[in-house]
Design brief:
By secondary structure, the chain is of the alpha/beta class. The protein has 15 helices and 13 strands. This is alpha-1,3-mannosyl-glycoprotein 2-beta-N-acetylglucosaminyltransferase.
């Protein structure tokens, strides 16, 4: 059977309730319908889920082919993404390095059939109250980021994204947000060679994929920390960031649950300094962000006591949270997950006690990864948000893009001729109005009469060649 397309006819719109909640519900329902349809029509072990406003790298599919087998041999992973929330042009360096995070990035991701069937399908957030016609759920991606879904497992993602989010207008997107968090994302534009395991030799993984396996990944981080420079002041940090081939370990103590615009919130000052997302959990693994500043590798490590545990669980002791009465060791006993003190293990174990609860919806605290505090040198400086509040970051080192007869992908014929005229003979020769040249001022674009009207189209060259 050749299947070209399927169409999901939307349900009748609700006219009551907050508009964003209604929209979130419709999107969640569409995602569920699409995933179920995909698994129904194709007998594949997994699906790659994409959106209609994504632009893909040349190696988008081979990236997933190379990384997919890791899901079967590493139980600490649960999905694979093509996106890096902090994959900005000034923060990435290695086209093949893979990273981990407990924060679901989305925007091009691989979902296994067994995860869908056994964990997500039944409880996917899409319920509407029939009586009041009001949405009773969160956004589907926020729901995926909840510990009750990921259970401490990680998402694998590339340091340099394999997808670019091209849409600047949408239900939860506007041009200002797109310009701040999406327009400067550095998509890989080379057809990278990945080793694809054969069916007969599924263990022959690409070396960079094998390096992302949990034990090897942690060993690499530990080795980096052992050789890292530890700055003791913001001026020293700024100086080291501009040095070549340094490895820096920057230790911070900032509440990971504080979020707000980049100039607000406890993590906002840190985010502003490095030019990254204002939400501390995006792209973080055990509270650590891996960033690059030119050829300087930065490990930004958060020591806050909330890092690494289920949100809110830090308020209570991991023991004594089971309401079950004592029973013979290892025997299942009753447990009420709706009580104020539910059992604390998805496997039924009550903390470190010998009691066992027959409870499928409880959290396993032991699966939550702690931060890297035990690896911090005793004399290391621990920075707070106040240290970054008034600090001026060093000059950004950006991978430039040069236009090569780029066709406008966003608008019609009137813009195609202009965008298609961009041509550069070499990396040191820039056309006067080449929209990939970030050295030009915004006023130049505006004077050209196109920038403000069509910023999504020409604020950057989407399919350009890259050079450093």
């Amino acid at each position: 059977m050749k299947l070209h397309s399927l169409q999901h006819l939307p349900a009748t719109r609700s006219t009551s309730g907050d508009a964003w909640k209604i929209a979130a519900n419709r999107i969640a329902r569409h995602y569920k319908w699409s995933i179920e349809a995909g698994f129904h029509h194709f007998q594949s072990p997994g699906l790659i889920i994409v959106e209609d406003d994504l632009i893909f790298s040349p190696d988008f599919l081979t990236y997933f082919q190379a990384t997919a087998p890791l899901l079967d041999c590493d139980p600490t992973l649960w999905v694979i993404s093509a996106w890096n929330d902090n994959g900005f042009e000034h923060l990435v360096h290695d086209r093949k390095q893979l990273q981990r995070t407990q924060f679901m990035p989305g925007l091009g991701w691989l979902l296994q059939r067994k995860i869908w069937d056994n964990e997500l399908a039944e409880k996917w957030p899409m319920e509407i109250s029939a009586a009041k016609q009001k949405v009773q759920t969160l956004n589907w991606d926020h729901w995926m980021r909840d510990p009750s879904q990921h259970q401490g497992r990680s998402v694998l993602f590339p340091q340099m994204p394999r997808a670019f989010h091209n849409g600047s207008v949408g239900t939860f997107m506007d041009p200002k947000m797109h310009q701040r968090y999406f327009a400067k994302i550095m998509i890989n534009q080379e057809n990278i060679s990945w080793k694809i395991p054969s069916i007969q030799s599924s263990r022959e993984l690409d070396p960079d994929v094998l390096a992302a396996q949990y034990d090897r990944y942690e060993a690499r981080v530990i080795q980096k920390l052992k050789s890292a420079h530890v700055p003791n002041s913001i001026p020293e940090l700024s100086q080291l960031m501009l040095s070549k081939k340094n490895v820096l370990a920057v230790w911070i103590d900032v509440d990971p649950e504080s979020s707000g615009p980049v100039n607000q919130g406890k993590f906002g000052a840190v985010a502003r300094f490095f030019g990254m997302w204002h939400e501390a959990k995006r792209g973080a693994h055990r509270g650590m962000h891996e960033l690059w500043w030119g050829e300087t590798h930065i490990l930004l490590l958060n020591l806050h006591f909330k890092v690494g545990y289920i949100e809110g669980s830090w308020k209570n002791s991991p023991d004594g949270r089971c309401t079950a009465s004592p029973a013979v060791s290892l025997n299942a006993i009753a447990c009420d997950p709706e009580s104020k003190l539910p059992c604390c293990s998805s496997g039924g174990w009550c903390g470190q006690s010998p009691l066992h609860c027959d409870c499928k919806r409880c959290f396993d605290f032991r699966k939550m990864l702690p931060n890297y505090r035990q690896l911090m040198p005793p004399t290391a400086k621990v920075f707070t948000s106040q240290d970054f509040a008034s600090a001026t970051p060093p000059a950004r080192i950006v991978t430039r893009k040069m236009c090569c007869a780029v066709r406008c992908l966003s608008f019609g014929d009137a813009q195609v001729s202009l965008a298609g005229s961009h041509f550069v003979k070499g990396p040191s020769v820039w056309l006067e109005y080449c929209m990939g040249d970030e050295r030009q001022q915004e006023s130049t674009y505006a004077d050209h009469g196109m920038y403000r009207a069509h910023s999504m189209c020409i604020s950057r060259c989407i399919v350009c060649m890259t050079w450093k």
